[in-house]
Design a protein that fits this description.
By secondary structure, the protein is an all-alpha fold. About 75% of the residues lie in helices and about 0% in strands. Belongs to the FliS family.
Length: about 130
């Protein structure tokens, strides 16, 4: 992916690309040398920091929950580097995969649903 493609992505597409990359790095960290494992875990942590920075206070409860998940995963990535804990890496891979899958499903649903207009944003949830 080149820089032009990144700049042309909508925010939700960029988030999806970052989540795909997160899954990739945790997957690669599971079965690589210590040096490669550490590199993949550091890159995963950098992605989590960027995902965390992309959250904003107006995102409501989902943003708050993602905030907690991203912080947990970033801290756990550092712990996995220090302890070389493969079980922790497997847990992080599972969490990243779940986030990626959920995000992909949400994007697919958003394509098929009409966007409500007007009113309070919370009134539109059922």
């Amino acid at each position: 992916m080149n820089p032009t493609q990144l700049y042309e992505m909508r925010p939700e597409e960029l988030t999806q690309a970052m989540l795909h990359a997160l899954v990739y790095h945790y997957e690669r960290a599971q079965d690589s040398t210590i040096a490669e494992r550490n590199r993949h875990l550091r890159q995963a942590r950098e992605l989590l920091v960027k995902l965390h920075q992309g959250l904003h206070d107006g995102g409501g409860i989902i943003a708050a929950q993602l905030d907690e998940i991203y912080l947990y995963m970033a801290n756990a990535s550092v712990e996995a580097i220090i302890d070389q804990d493969k079980k922790k890496i497997a847990e992080l891979h599972t969490l990243a995969s779940d986030l990626d899958q959920t995000w992909s499903e949400a994007m697919e649903r958003a394509k098929t649903q009409s966007v409500p207009t007007g009113g309070n944003r919370y009134e539109n949830y059922q």
